[in-house]
From TrEMBL, chain A:
GO cellular component: cell envelope; cytosol
Cellular location(s): Cell envelope
Cofactor(s) in the UniProt record: heme b
Ranges of biased composition (kind: Basic and acidic residues): 1-11
EC number(s) per entry: 1.11.1.-
Protein's name in the database: Deferrochelatase
Boundaries of every Dyp-type peroxidase C-terminal domain copy: 246-426
Family the entry assigns: Belongs to the DyP-type peroxidase family.
Function statement: Involved in the recovery of exogenous heme iron. Extracts iron from heme while preserving the protoporphyrin ring intact.
Pfam hit, one: Dyp_perox_N
Organism superkingdom: Bacteria
Chain residue ranges for the region called Disordered: 1-26
Length: 440, 302
């Protein structure tokens, strides 16, 4: 039976991916078409919607909701932290600037679909060709959107690598996008650091976050290669007043004094790039710094409660600054104990963080990569992620103080480091990073 | 030897028949991989049968007819070359010429590797000809890799004469099977991608030619066989999706360029000379090609 003779419902399971002649379109073609029409992918816009992918209304819970992909800022920054992270850095392997630009467009379109709880194409139901792999890999079928956010960024090496202007973008590199300088005590591993591009996928369901990264990697095959990847769990920072402060793997509350997304003035002052500092294509964007911080958990677990609390400068269970009652009580750097020593020790984590007055939006996750074979210990720690207007003025001085003096250094080791420029969000029909290529 | 998990992609005479061939020919999971893999393969086969049966027959066009015909000729040619080369190789083994046998081993296998998906789907010849140690029970283990082990591990042909004779007979049997073969357009479609999956799944790690380290011969042959299958389809794809042809052309060129530095005279350097980074680069280049190549199946919907 030829296709023409087959009943309509039997072929090309999903209408949207069928072209005008009923011919199945590749993902690339489907995106092109949808982009041209400017309507096909109008998803995820306009407030919280309930996810579509196979979920029913009665299943909908706050954690199942869809977060709009399109907007003035990229989602996944001010969005209240989800429970899970799947972060991947990529290196660009093509030398063709158009291929890179096309990939960014495809990535945004696929991301908009996935964030709305939709597959990135046909999942291979009845009528799908037995001779083609399905467009979408399928493991998220039946999973709601799970507040999935996908956030894209550009590393310094995208603009220039070993002095080479790879894509004619060197002149457009933001001054603030500079590699994080070496810090005392760094134990950085190159294979866990850097990258030309980053994809941060956060969701309340780890399978949904994995699905996002996997499908983006698949779409990018031949244009980009995965460089390193980090899965995270148990958000350790609250980025919203709606959320309780999470605990890191040391058992302490982390991020009590974090910026809160509801505080728009503070966000504008500290996180979102303004028009004044330039470049124009970064207005409404921000800079992401990530640090893979290995925790020497076995050593920590042997240290006394007093030692643990003095290391952080907080009480373990309540999260209150030493000598205070409540978690959110102000940290009093002047307060002294009966012995005349500061209650919050000079080299405590909370003091060193607060001293410089810098503010950053932290959005970190705990991680484990199984066992450290060399030591036979848990390979676990904190995948630290923060956002700011200028890493050189915010993260770098803060981290330098800590790297030099923090009592916590006895128990941690920084093994990965990266910095990325996160452009502003895209409008429907556009794509994240469009401004970088426009008119250049 | 092919992975049982990949067995569902096996080729044969038409899509529906292909599955019947696998199910009926008694190819079982290697002992070493345990029952679970075998069950998975069986289940997958059953599911595939149902789905494939429900799917449609491939509508034929002159281009597709020509594709299966020209791919069929390629398979026959390579099989002929395999017979001749195996004759020389097994002759060297039987006459006790270790150096000559070593020299002929990899160039002989090239002809098998180029057409492996088709060859492996015929009868139960694949485990006899191409099983690696542990793929089949020790007492059943023969074929190329058994002799490879003796040649490189023990530097001898002693005790290999019988394996050589059986291998020759099995390759002759393969020729007989191939002569009666009537390929479908789906065969080059599946074959082109299957050959790259062979590289990704079993060869990048260096486990295929674990004694001789001649993996690059096998890898290059898989890629050449994949390209031959694609070229037979190219006129059909060109009409459907010329951009896809261009993309695949570019990626084949990239992949060959990645291999080029490892050329050594008429052959290839030992795979052990590639470090982790170089193997990864090769793997990524294969993945980059396999992705667009997996969309060639769209021509079968015409």
């Amino acid at each position: 039976m030829s296709r023409e003779e087959r009943p309509e419902q039997e072929r090309g399971a999903s209408g949207p991916l069928d072209g005008p002649r009923g011919k199945r379109l590749s993902r690339r073609e489907a995106f092109r078409l949808a982009g041209a029409a400017g309507t096909g992918l109008a998803l995820g816009a306009g407030g919280m919607g309930v996810a579509a992918r196979g979920s029913r209304a009665e299943e909908a819970s706050p954690d199942a909701e869809a977060v709009p992909f399109y907007g003035a800022h990229q989602a996944g920054i001010a969005t209240p932290s989800q429970h899970r992270l799947h972060f991947t850095a990529f290196d660009v392997v093509t030398e063709d600037r158009d291929e890179l630009r096309d990939l960014l467009r495809e990535w945004s379109e696929a991301a908009a679909l996935m964030c709305a709880g939709e597959p990135v194409g046909d999942v291979g139901g009845a009528g799908f060709s037995p001779y083609l792999p399905p467009d979408d890999t399928g493991e998220a079928i039946g999973h709601p959107a799970s507040r999935l956010t996908i956030t894209f960024g550009f590393g310094p090496t995208l603009f220039e690598r070993d002095g080479e202007d790879r894509f004619g973008l060197a002149a457009r590199r933001p001054k603030a996008l500079a590699p994080i300088p070496p810090m005392p005590g760094d134990a950085l591993r190159p294979e866990l650091s850097g990258g030309d591009l980053c994809v941060q996928a956060c969701a309340d369901d780890p399978q949904v976050a994995f699905h996002a990264v996997r499908n983006l990697a698949r779409i990018g095959r031949g244009v980009v290669e995965m460089r390193w990847s980090q899965m995270g769990f148990g958000r350790t920072s609250s980025t919203s007043r709606q959320q309780e402060t999470g605990r890191n793997l040391f058992g302490f509350k982390d991020g009590t004094n974090n910026l809160k997304a509801e505080d728009e003035r503070a966000m504008d002052r500290n996180v979102w790039v303004g028009l004044s500092e330039g470049p124009g294509w970064m207005e409404g964007g921000t800079y992401l710094v990530s640090r893979r911080i290995r925790m020497l958990i076995e050593v920590w677990d042997r240290s006394s409660l007093d030692d643990q609390e003095k290391t952080f400068g907080r009480h373990k269970v309540s999260g209150a600054p030493i000598g205070r009652e409540g978690e959110f009580d102000a940290v009093d750097l002047e307060a002294e104990g009966e012995d005349g020593e500061p209650l919050v020790p000079e080299n405590s984590h909370v003091r060193l963080g607060a001293e410089g007055g810098e503010s950053i939006l932290r959005r970190s996750y705990s991680y484990t990569d199984g066992i450290d074979r060399e030591r036979g210990q848990l390979d676990a720690g904190l995948f630290f992620v923060c956002f700011q207007r200028d890493p050189g003025r915010q993260f770098v001085p803060m981290q330098r103080r800590m790297a030099e003096n923090d009592a916590l250094n006895e128990y941690i080791s920084h093994t990965g480091s990266a910095v990325f420029a996160l452009p502003p969000g895209a409008r429907e029909g556009g794509y994240v990073g469009e401004g970088l290529f426009a008119g250049a | 030897m092919r992975s049982p998990v990949l067995e569902k992609f096996v080729l044969g005479v038409g899509a529906v028949l292909a599955v019947a061939v696998v199910a009926g020919c008694g190819q079982t999971a290697p002992q070493g991989s345990g029952g679970e893999a075998g069950e998975t393969a069986a289940e997958t086969t059953a599911e595939t049968t149902a789905e494939t049966t429900a799917a449609t027959e491939v509508g034929s066009t002159p281009e597709l007819e020509a594709a299966s015909e020209s791919y069929g000729e390629y398979v026959v040619d390579e099989t002929e070359d395999l017979v001749d080369a195996t004759d020389r190789f097994t002759g060297a083994v039987i006459s006790g010429d270790v150096e000559r046998a070593k020299r002929l081993y990899a160039p002989t296998r090239v002809h098998w590797e180029r057409i492996e998906p088709v060859a492996a789907s015929l009868g139960d010849l694949d485990p006899k000809i191409d099983a690696r140690e542990g793929d089949v029970p020790e007492e059943e283990w023969g074929g190329f890799h058994r002799i490879e082990q003796a040649l490189w591990e023990e530097n001898t042909t002693e005790g290999q004469e019988e394996y050589a004779r059986v291998l020759m007979a099995d390759v002759e049997a393969l020729r007989t099977e191939v002569e009666g073969l009537d390929l479908e357009p789906s065969d080059p479609v599946v074959g082109s991608i299957e050959l790259l999956n062979e590289v990704s799944a079993g060869k990048i790690t260096g486990e295929e030619e674990r004694y001789s380290h001649t993996d690059l011969y096998s890898i290059a042959a898989n890629i050449e066989g994949s390209e031959a299958a694609f070229r037979s389809l190219e006129p059909a794809v060109e009409g459907e999706d010329p951009e896809l042809v261009q993309e695949i052309d570019d990626r084949f060129a990239d992949l060959y360029a990645t291999l080029e530095p490892y050329r050594d005279g008429d052959g290839w350097v030992p795979y052990t000379e590639l470090d982790e980074r170089e193997r990864r680069e090769l793997s990524q280049s294969v993945d980059a090609l396999a992705e667009p190549l997996s969309r060639v199946g769209q021509v079968l919907q015409a």
